[in-house]
Specification:
The protein has 669 residues and is of the alpha/beta class. It contains 27 helices and 17 strands.
Length: 669
């Protein structure tokens, strides 16, 4: 009412009687007070107190003139809604405008001839109003409500006629069925409509409630309940189909004043389902909608009016507080993601990180460059890492050597093997370890030297011992290496499930290595390769965040970049890789991109000269080039600057975190 008073005061009292009556009707529709209106009217030249009182009593808002007329005239005179909607205000009009872009099914309009027949029928029904008096009184409708909603009587069918304010439509209701009573088979239908149409094609009952100045509008199933709530001071509409309500809201455009919707369910299972459907649809359209259930024991609003009218008054008056409380609760929930609210969680995360040291890659120079490039080593932390290279440059070997280093420190590694078998990957590790266990270079073994059993009878005792010791060393760390095989059958969703299963069964979150991105099973076989790769990269990023683990993905390069220096453009389908990865490392042959570079000659060198270029480092510097020597035959990368290559014997030092000492030259692994 305060808002209506403020708006009325902003409008000069018009001398024209028609304009004065129009504003009076709009003010009364807004719930205005007689005394305040009378004082405003007294400012006019032709004020007559007795005539004023009679005029006030005779005016009944009927939908033709609504609260919107009052507020529109006030705004034309410079008035603004200073209270911002009070407790009812939950969504801005801009949000509602966005919501109106959504499609919704509009009721099928009547033809002009049908509309004329409807208007004639409703007018005739008014003449039989005496016959509905007892029924309406039983419904607790007062005379003003009966007149306001133009309730009438169909003498031929002996039914109550309920016109739709603001629409050429009506419904008739049987008066022989008790309120909320069950209809028996031989009884007439409870409701009849002027046209045969689906529920969604029937218009909303009491459309003016949406534009009449009320900032909260109740939505009921039945017209009787909406009329009841209107009598008790609450703007209300009746509809069962969300599309119909949304269509009415969109059609109202900027004239709409409703900013929150209270869905009031009938107290039965179907009613609850319809209410949830209505609320969810309105919420999805960007509108503030809440389910506001009746107190226990009452089937609907009219049932409560009949049995406990005073309680209904209190319940409707509490609606504003209900919305305000929901708004405060929603705000409190939303504020949980503010920086201030998250400070305790940040402190806890920092404290917990002390027990989660950075994970060494096993390559000291790479660790340092992933840190700050100085004396504080970096390594792997929670995030998405991408390692890219051309074919046959050792991407898998480079990553598996990292995996073995991590496993040696006692941390689980989950390898998603999409190209090579588990046995091949294991043989790579054992082959690498024969470099340590061999007494002479001739005793070292390749992957085929490990896997082909036909060779073993020909091995010397020294060669057999070399393999046995390498297998023993690998066994010591392999209890932390878990390999999942799959060619074309494993996608991003399956990787998430595997990580979840690993965590649930072992209680440990693993470092994940995916070999390799472009051959993951597509999430959508009909989508492009780029779309599927982008989706997979984003899911890998989510897994790293959700489990606070490093996820290392191997990626192939475009063929056009085989002889060029590594760059982001070289990564196949590189859009999501570039933007979602925390770290991107490109492997290239030394000299790539220079004049007269021969890729085949560089590949055939033994050992190969490989450079790791940090193309992206979200938490550090980029552009650093780290030299390696790659012995392809024995699956071994050597850190040239530090002279270090991983051995299981380093596990204790890695666990002790001595990499800083290594960097300072105090200790060499």
């Amino acid at each position: 009412m305060q808002k209506a008073d403020s708006a009325l005061d902003a409008i000069p009292t018009p001398a024209d009687r028609d304009a004065w009556l129009k504003l009076t009707t709009a003010y009364k529709a807004a719930g205005g007070d007689y005394e305040h209106w009378d004082a405003w009217s007294a400012k006019g030249d032709s004020y007559n107190q007795r005539a004023n009182r009679d005029t006030w009593k005779s005016i009944t808002p009927d939908g033709g003139i609504t609260e919107a007329t009052l507020y529109g005239a006030a705004r034309e005179n410079g008035w603004t809604d200073q209270d911002g909607g009070g407790d009812w205000h939950t969504h801005t009009h801009s949000a509602s405008r966005e919501a109106r872009k959504a499609p919704a099914r509009k009721p099928a309009p009547l033809t002009p001839a049908q509309a004329a027949n409807v208007e004639q029928y409703i007018a005739q029904a008014q003449a039989g109003r005496d016959q509905i008096a007892a029924y309406c009184k039983g419904r607790e409708f007062n005379d003003e409500t009966i007149e306001r909603f133009k309730l009438g009587y169909d003498a031929a069918e002996k039914r109550l006629v309920i016109p739709y304010p603001g629409a050429a439509y009506y419904v008739t209701r049987s008066m022989t069925i008790a309120p909320n009573g069950e209809r028996k088979d031989k009884e007439p239908p409870k409701y009849k409509y002027p046209t045969k149409a689906a529920a969604g094609d029937k218009p909303v009952f009491n459309l003016p409630a949406l534009t009449g100045g009320a900032e909260a509008v109740a939505i009921t199933e039945g017209q009787i309940d909406a009329i009841t709530l209107e009598q008790y001071g609450t703007a209300a509409i009746a509809a069962t189909e969300p599309d119909t309500v949304l269509a009415a809201i969109y059609a109202a455009g900027d004239a709409i004043t409703a900013r929150a919707y209270l869905v009031i369910p009938d107290a039965d299972a179907p009613g609850a389902g319809k209410a949830e459907k209505m609320r969810d649809a309105l919420n999805a359209a960007g509108l503030a909608a809440y389910i506001y259930p009746l107190p226990g024991g009452y089937h609907d609003a009219n049932d409560m009016a009949i049995k406990a009218g005073a309680d209904l008054w209190d319940w409707t008056r509490n609606a504003g507080g209900f919305i305000a409380e929901r708004k405060r609760a929603a705000l409190a929930e939303y504020c949980k993601i503010s920086g201030a609210e998250r400070m305790p969680a940040l402190r806890a995360f920092i404290e917990q990180s002390a027990s989660r040291p950075v994970i060494s890659t096993g390559y000291p120079t790479l660790d340092l460059e992933l840190g700050d490039g100085g004396i504080i080593p970096g390594g792997l932390t929670a995030g998405l890492y991408t390692i890219g290279a051309i074919s046959s440059l050792g991407k898998t070997t480079f990553a598996m050597q990292i995996a073995d280093s991590i496993a040696a420190s006692g941390r689980d590694v989950l390898v998603i093997a999409l190209e090579m078998s588990a046995f091949e990957l294991m043989a790579k590790s054992i082959s690498r370890l024969t470099v340590d266990t061999a007494g002479a270079d001739s005793e070292r073994k390749t992957v085929q030297g490990i896997l082909q059993g036909t060779r073993y009878p020909k091995y010397s005792p020294e060669e057999a011992r070399t393999i046995q010791e390498a297998e023993a060393r690998y066994t010591a760390i392999a209890k932390h290496v878990f390999i999942v095989e799959g060619i074309g059958t494993i996608g991003a969703a399956q990787i998430r499930e595997t990580v979840k299963w690993h965590y649930q069964t072992t209680g440990r979150a693993p470092v994940v290595i995916v070999d390799y991105l472009q051959i993951l099973a597509p999430a959508d076989p009909r989508a492009t390769d780029k779309a599927n790769t982008d989706a997979a990269v984003l899911e890998m990023k989510r897994i790293s965040r959700d489990y606070s683990i490093p996820v290392v993905c191997i990626s192939s390069f475009n063929r056009s970049n085989y002889a060029n220096r590594v760059s982001m453009e070289a990564l196949k389908e590189s859009g999501a890789i570039e933007y979602s990865s925390d770290v991107v490392i490109g492997l290239q042959l030394e000299g790539a991109g220079t004049k007269d570079f021969d890729v085949d000659a560089a590949k055939s060198a033994e050992p190969r000269k490989i450079e790791a270029v940090i193309l992206k480092n979200r938490s550090g510097k980029t552009g650093q080039t780290i030299p390696f020597e790659y012995e392809a035959r024995f699956n071994l990368f050597r850190d040239v600057k530090q002279g270090h290559r991983f051995s299981p014997e380093d596990a204790g030092a890695i666990r002790a975190g001595n990499l800083a000492d290594i960097a300072k030259g105090k200790r060499r692994l």
